[in-house]
Amino acid sequence: MRDFTLTPEILLNAYASGIFPMAESRDDPDLFWVDPRERGIIPIGGFHMSRSLRRQITRMPHEVRFDTAFADVVDACADRPETWINDLIFDLYTDLFAAGFAHSVEVYDANGKLFGGVYGVALGRAFFGESMFSRQTGGSKIALAYLMDRLERAGYDLFDTQFLTDHLATLGGIEIPRADYKARLADALEDVADFHGVDTPTPQALVQRMTQTS
Q: What is the pTM of this model?
């Protein structure tokens, strides 16, 4: 049963305070709050695009869409043996999406099949990355590349990855202390960015632009 004491408004206030929720497992009905001492971020403009990712983006037929299959992306992110995405997480973020505070990136192959994606929460000029998935090699990296490009061009100042993994480190991720993160967050919340205020680039334009800035 959904816990009606935790609302989307409370969730947004938590993000604005620098904390975020997780569940112990898919079957755990409860959530707990996380406030890491070291916070993972990818600096805006600091996404690292490897040669192999460049080749994949420019040579593999694909289509990238934004906010057209949010629930499908969250479902795909939860479709793994160990996940912190339970039913309450799904419901809350679906509500945030309906209110315009959550977004997804979807990557489709030449046959129209969803094979990669990422979703997160946008607040002010901060974007909080929640989870990403791949159903074939490179799916999540392609989604993240398009997302990072959009955030930079739309005027975002902060991309929060919550934790730093080895995978994210290869893409330009770093760790910063909690106090540094919260100072950057406070600055990012002073203004608003428009997630849909820019277009989706061609694969060639994306690679050219991100190669110049990486």
A: 0.94
